Amino acid sequence: MRYWLDIGMTTEKPLTRNIRPGGPPCNLQEYEKSGGYLGLRKALAGHHQDVVDMVVNANLLGRGGAGFPAGKKWSVVPMGASAPRPKYVVCNFDEMEPGSFKDRFLAEGDPHQLIEGMIIAGYAIEAQIGYIFIRKDYLKAERILRDAINEAYSKKYLGQDILGSGFNFELHLHGSAGRYICGESSALLNALEGGRAIPRSRPPHMSSVGLWGKPTVVNNVETICNVPHIAANGPEWFKGLSYTDEGGTKIYGASGRVRTLGAWELPMGTPLREILEDHAGGMQEGYEFRGVMPGGASSEFITTEHLDARMDFASMRTVDSHLGTGTLIVLDDRNCPIGMVLSLQRYFSRESCGWCTPCREGLPWIVQMLEALEEGRGTMEDIEILKSHTRLLETGNTFCTLAPAAMFSLESALRHFSEDFEEHVKKGRCPYKS
Amino acid sequence: MATIYIENKPYEAREGRNLLEACLDLGFNIPYFCWHPAIGSVGACRQCAVKHFRDEHDTKGRIVMSCMTQVKDGMRISVDDPEVLEFRKSVIEWLMLNHPHDCPVCDEGGECHLQDMTVMTGHVYRRTRFRKRTYNNQYLGPLVNHEMNRCIQCYRCVRFYKDYAGGRDLNVFSAHDHVYFGRYEDGTLESEFSGNLIEICPTGVFTDKTLKHHYTRKWDLQSAPSVCVHCSLGCNTMPGERYGYLRRVLNRFNFNVNGYFLCDRGRFGYLFVNSPDRVKVPLLKNKAAEPAKATPGDIGDFFSRSFHFGMRAIGIGSPRASLESNFALRTLVGPESFYLGMSAVDYRLVSLITDIMKQMPAAIASLEDIRNCDAVFVLGEDITNTAPLADLAVRCASRQGPLKKLDAEGIARWNDLALGYIAQGELGPVFIATPARTKLDDIAAGSFRGAPQDLAAFGFAVAHALDAESQQAGAFSEAELDLISNIADALRKAERPLVICGTGCKSEAVITAAADIIETLNAGGGSAMLSCIVPECNSLGLILIGGGSMEDVLSAAGGHIDTAVILEQDLYSLAERSSVDSFFSKVENVIVFDYLPSESTSRADLLLPAATFAESSGTLVNNEARAQRFYSAFPPTEGVRDSWRWIADMLQAAGNTEAASWNTIDDITESLAVALPAFQGVTGIAPPAGFRISGMMVPRQHHRHSGRTAMHADISIREPEVYNDAASALAFSMEGYENIPPPSLIARYWSSGWNSVQALSKFQSEIGAHLRGGDPGVRLITQRDYLIFALREKTARRTGHKSGEWTVVPLYHIFGSEKMSMFSAPIAGLAPKPYLALNGEEIRHLKIAEGDMVVVTGKHTHLELPLTRNDSLPRGVAGLPYGLPGIYWFDFSAKYRIGRPGSAIS
């Protein structure tokens, strides 16, 4: 895939400033020259708590999709001499959300930004060990990160007594065996421990009983990449980057039949219409817009009526959708929405870990019904059963949020494209296929 | 206690329990799958959903899993909210999407938890029309059948097998809707507890292969409360019969003893009852011909010939016969002529154990006590093979440390997932000192290997290390001394330390050392416990009755003996062959009672068919002196009788008037309690034979029992009369009291809507805890009687290794080392062939290849055996499998030479 970076805008782009799309990654000298590892020096000069406070004040919300405040996550980790040791910082780089490629973009382009963020996060919670848990298929990112980690070790940014501060931090790169569920932070820990990638129940919370039973913080790549900039420039600067009160910039992306595919760093809260029309360049010739999933496969379709909504966590909730990973998947008028949902449900069904009944058994049934509809064998009862599943697979009914998130696309498709579903039954075939 | 509101009505519930337990305790039927009282909650199946409301104003509420939600005071829930009911029904619908619906041909049908839950949720109509997923099944050995298509992925099998029982060869594979529960490849399940999968599995994935051969529905099995006869722990069982054959054994819950589980020897050993070799008719040996079937007249004549005035008769009791049969025999021959059918060494060891128990009765651990101990030292006993449920209990004990971590996090102990995250595989201290590696070494924090004498010295050294005053014992290496101090440290720091020993090593010193550790630990008033494993199901009961030893029997044969009565025992397994031969040759009339043939039965002048545990009733005393009643599951075939009934006839023939009143077990236990006050407790262990509830007996048959009028129609179209069982309050009938009987009379678990073994919870005072009305069985040793232990020698010297000479130690096999279960074909098939085991280094030194024959020679011994390698054996110690056919008796106290067959052994 070709990455496209909009460099014409004047707003600040801290995350992508060093990234050369299609070019080599930013190396250590270049990174240092651009002000890299300054944030780390500043952080190490202060107290652990100062770093946590800064991230809390910056209102950095988790970029993995859930939007949980990163500072809040860090602030509940047991601290001080009596806290269990070692503590861990884990970077969730198991980017397998369909339609999302922002983490890969960041890590491949500017690996030291991620490494610096990990060290600062480690310092903030007094962790000794960090892991970057990387998606199985990200071989290029793996190579780039491995080289960058070695560079960082050779310059004493990692290891013992970092920059003479007395702080020790080891960073490991760990390859996933390849399951979407590993992106669920607690399943990720089980996978990292060598067990089956099954989510964990709470309590206990990972902040006190996490990886190998020790206090652990798990953050997404993009979240971690923001940390050096907050440490270097302060929370007020960070909040100023955003259009709303959710701090910072956001990497937005788009796929589907738009003119320009790509990822763009824009202020948090950029309106959906602006991303779609200005950055993605609107629909391709001959295609009409029908709907968009604003945050990858685990978000609800938004149709034209809400295109002016801002793309941040809170605003997306007000229009019954989710910001998720902020990467748009656009549906046009020549592709079948049922086919699209079927393709997504096949993915979720295959990626279910198999632990809880509703997800393990419910999703494959949904797939069977969608297949039947798409192939003209569907019934009106199928549509009713599909509708009931969007309710039955709600959060709380299942063990984790994989199945509830899988229902976002199905539920919104049934809501927005109900006539398409019915037409499939009435015509006994998919009307989009000739 | 907390008050919780269910449908706005207040109920009392214990704080800290989960809502599922609390609701089931209160009698609300909430469906569930992945939760099990013994293995806790994981929230996987989502079946036990309930509605939780924030407060009384919250009308919407939210669905929570009751198994994962802790009871809190003031909590408001609904168990029949419409949304909850719809969701639970949906869970069943999802599980049923791929279930094969093969109930009519499924072995689980009629006692299937999935069937019960399906009915309970009201899911009746199949809405899906798509193809079902299918799997390949695996061959898992001769005991457990595998049918993966029925699986509903509750994960209970692997959680029991791996996490609870420490098994390694059953796992969950693959993901999403293709998760697979099985082995990496086909093969016999390695765990000693694999049979529990049959009861743990909520449906028909894992079923009893021995039952499958002659399949019978649960409701057609006639069953009774029983006690396992295959080791000394006395696990409670429920054998089930159909058409005169025993068809299976199920676990019978006893909180203090086996809890929810049995070992595979206990579950599958029962087939000896159906053995075609069974002694079914009385046989009288004539001087000339082959033994012939004896008529009642012949038997009467033989009795009066054998017992008339002035004749000298001796009786040899049996540790696998009931107290009642042994006591009857003792009454017949008189206390001075009653001998205990135990080998000389077992007699000494069990006597020693009994003395120790009498000295410190409070410290004797039940299996439930073991499960709750937080530091364990196993001295000299391979409990995995001699007392398997003790192994399972120690595995529970090893989780006590991690459970304390859970307590520290404020998380309830039923949260099995949290336990996994917190424990991270870490286990509490378990130390093992045995001659060779045992399976339990897998979870040991430290192990020591040595000959029995070395183990004793090691044990005494631990006791020394516990006693700051005393001198450290010498003769141990630096590493061994470290281990000794680690063990002492762990035992001292523990709240409930435990030492397990037993007769397995055939060493008094080992047992004394174990007791010495407990005595030292408890010197200042500690809570340390001791568990002693004895050889057989009634070894301890027999010692408590008291009598002469096997040595006395053999020397008694020096004088004149007219009649010897041998009860359910093979003398050839108790003493050296030539001495037994000479004993038999000197006795005029040999009367043997047994159910299976042995060398001794072939020496009988009169062989009388005895009833097995399944066809008779009586009392057994387990290794912790717990007297427990077992009842016949079905009437014996004609000619076969309880041994004590045969003996009562002899008594009458001998003119004893007391025996004339022996009609029931109660009559004989009353005589027993009068004659031997130690047994006073026995009279109260079960309701008397005359016990009735609303005038009704407790039926052995299910109220759905079928075929009563048809099952004998091929013989006679007349329905046979119901066998009148005046001996107990249980009836061989489907008619009688249908509700929950007193705990010692529970013949099956069933409750309306609960057809599976999960119905057990309806019989418990609280889920997972005691049975309603208390757990059956009475401990016979509860008071300090006298002190003799303090006088014993409390040191042992380490053995020196002399080249060319070996100590032979018994190696135990769960399948093979117990005689009766070896008459069960699947178990015999899993038993090893006789072998001699040596350390690899010694094998190299001997220049004999593994697998080649070697000769073991000693004073009375010349055995030719294939050589196997066991590197865990110390130098100078050879291992011989215990109790295998052909080597029932072996003198483990002597020294032996080992060499090539034919070659001169210097």
Give a description of the structure.
The complex is a heterodimer of chains A (434) and B (906). Chain A is α/β, with parallel strands linked by helices. Chain A has helices at 28-33, 38-45, 48-57, 70-75, 102-109, 111-124, 139-154, 185-192, 221-233, 235-240, 272-279, 313-318, 337-351, 357-374, 380-392, 402-416, 418-427; strands at 88-93, 129-134, 170-175, 216-220, 249-256, 262-267, 289-293, 327-332. In chain A, strands 3-2-1-4 form a four-stranded parallel beta sheet, with helices on both faces. Chain A has a four-stranded mixed beta sheet with strand order 6-5-8-7, covered by helices on one side. In chain A, helix 7 (139-154) links the parallel strand 2 and strand 3. Mean pLDDT of chain A is 95; it is low at 1-10. Chain B is an alpha/beta fold and 906 residues long. Chain B contains 26 helices and 36 strands. The chains are: A alpha/beta (434), B alpha/beta (906).
Question: Can you lay out the helices and strands and say which pair or pack?
Answer:
The complex is a heterodimer of chains A (434) and B (906).
Chain A: H1 28-33, H2 38-45, H3 48-57, H4 70-75, E1 88-93, H5 102-109, H6 111-124, E2 129-134, H7 139-154, E3 170-175, H8 185-192, E4 216-220, H9 221-233, H10 235-240, E5 249-256, E6 262-267, H11 272-279, E7 289-293, H12 313-318, E8 327-332, H13 337-351, H14 357-374, H15 380-392, H16 402-416, H17 418-427
Parallel strand pairs in A: 1-2, 1-4, 2-3, 5-8
Antiparallel strand pairs in A: 5-6, 7-8
Helix pairs in contact in A: 2-6, 2-9, 3-6, 5-6, 6-9, 13-14, 13-16, 14-15, 15-16
Chain B: E1 2-6, E2 9-13, H1 19-25, E3 49-53, E4 62-65, E5 76-78, H2 82-97, H3 113-121, E6 144-146, H4 156-164, E7 171-173, E8 180-182, H5 196-200, E9 206-208, H6 209-212, E10 222-223, E11 226-227, E12 236-242, E13 245-251, H7 264-268, E14 283-284, E15 292-293, H8 296-306, E16 313-316, H9 323-333, E17 338-339, H10 344-359, H11 367-371, E18 375-379, H12 383-386, H13 388-397, H14 400-408, H15 416-423, E19 430-434, E20 446-449, H16 452-466, H17 478-493, E21 497-502, H18 508-521, E22 529-533, H19 539-545, H20 550-556, E23 561-567, H21 577-586, E24 587-594, H22 599-602, E25 606-609, E26 618-621, E27 626-630, H23 643-653, H24 665-675, E28 698-699, E29 730-731, E30 778-779, E31 806-811, H25 825-830, E32 836-838, H26 840-846, E33 853-857, E34 862-869, E35 877-881, E36 895-899
